Amino acid sequence: MARRKQPTARQERLGAELRKLREAAGIKGREAATLLGADSAQISQIEFGTAGVSGERVRRLAAHYACTDTELVEALVAMAADRTHGWWEEYRGLLPTPFLDLSELEHHATYRWDVDFLHIPGLLQAEDYARALFSFTTPELPSIELDACVNHRMQRRLIIDARPTPYETVIHEAALRIRIGGRTAFRSQLARILDLSEADNVTVRVIPFDLDDFAGAGSTMVYAGGAVPALDTVVRDAPHGTAFIDSAAQLDHFRTLFRKVEAVSLAPERSREFIHQLAKEL
Q1: Is the pTM of this model over 0.90?
Q2: Which residues is 224 bridged to in the sheet?
C-alpha cells in the first residue's frame, strides 16, 4: 500500500491506538512486524498513519496484543476499512488541514458536546456571524479563502441539521452579548440558536453572568464521541494550532469538566427564555 504524504487525524488516530495496544502488551515493533511478515519500518508507518492497514491485520495485531476489548477492536477494524471521501475533501489545498480533520471527526461522531465563552459554537453559527469572524482574521484572508471558510463552516452544520447527531452545548452569556456582525446579523444569530434549540437532538444551555462563584471560564472545548469511549476526541485551539486530544486521562478530565459546567448552567427551557429575552433587547 502506498505511503501517505499527509495522513488525516483519523488515520493517525488508528495508528496511535494500535501503538497503544502494542505498548500495553510490552511487544516491540519488530515482533509485531514479524507477525505480519513485514519489517519494523512498516509497523512504524502504520502506527504514525502514513501507511494503511487492513481490517484483517488489525484483528491479527489485536489478538497478538491480547486485547480482549472486542468493541474497541471492531471499531478499529471499521476505521481501517473506512474509505470515506466526504464533502470536506473539496476544500483540500484551499483550507488548513485541521478544518478538514474536524469535519471528518464530526462526520463519524456519535455525539457532540461544545462549551464556549466568547463565541457562538461553530455548529450554531449563522452565515453572517461566521463571515464577520473570519473577516477579522489577521492577515486578512483573500476573498476566495474567506468564502471557503464560511461555506465550510455552514456545511459542517449538516451533522445536526440533517443526520441528526445528538448535540449538547453550553454557552456563556458573554458570547450571547458580543454583537459580532452587527445588531441585525446578531439578532438573526440568536434566532437561529432558538430555532435549533427546539430540535430533539439539540440541547442548548446558558451560563449567565450573575452565576455566583463560577471559575470555569477555561473550560472551552469541542468533544466528539467515538464509536466507543476510548475513541472519543477533544479538540481545542492552542497557541501552536489546533490540538486533537485523545489520551485516556485527558478524555476523562474533559468528560468530568463538561458535566461540571453543564451542572451549573441554566436548564434548556430557561436557557431558551434567556436567549429570547436577549433577542428582544436588540
Answers
A1: yes
A2: 112, 233
